[in-house]
Amino acid sequence: MIRTYVHRFDHRVGFRGSVLLFLALWSGSQAIRLYWVDPAAVGTPTYAYLASVAPLWTLAIPWCVCAVLCTVQAFAVTDWTAFALTSGVLVGWAVIHLVGGIQGAIPQAYWSCIVQVAVAGLILRLSRWPEPSERRR
Predict the structure, then answer these.
(1) What is the DSSP secondary structure assignment for residue 55, as one 8-state letter?
(2) Looking at the domain assignment, is residue 135 inside a domain?
(3) Given this model, what pLDDT does residue 5 score?
(4) How many domains are there within the chain?
(5) Does a structural domain hold residue 84?
(6) Angle at the Cα of 66 from the Cα atoms of 83 and 87, rounded to 5 degrees
(7) For position 137, what pLDDT does the model report?
(8) Can you list the alpha helix ranges (DSSP code H) found in the chain?
(9) Does some domain include residue 134?
(10) For the chain, which residues score pLDDT lower than 70?
(11) Which domain holds residue 20?
(12) Which residues of 13-43 are buried (b: 16+ CB within 10 A; e: fewer)?
């Protein structure tokens, strides 16, 4: 019975939709991480720098928008906006970290930049993949 529901859900969202749902989960967790900051993390150099750029709750807004848009477009016919926005937010996040690294505020910021840009590139690559056709039985 559960297998039937999973198959129906997988058929409804497809490959691209499932990627968007994972991106929604990730973006939502990023938003929560920035909105409800762990008090132990506030003293870290990265959080201190991010808080100097803007209040952390405002930095959570683009991630929250990505999570909502990815969730909605996972069930829609056109989904390019969600892929593009998520990649754009990641590149923006990489730029913020790069500037913090250049200023010396964030140690090893290059690592964060590399990861963010690599994931943004992967998302853009996944956005170009066509939906696989249904397998014949």
Answers:
(1) -
(2) no
(3) 66
(4) 1
(5) yes
(6) 40
(7) 42
(8) 2-35, 45-53, 56-73, 80-102, 109-127
(9) no
(10) 5-7, 133-137
(11) 2-127
(12) bbebbebbbebbebbbebbeebeebeeeeee
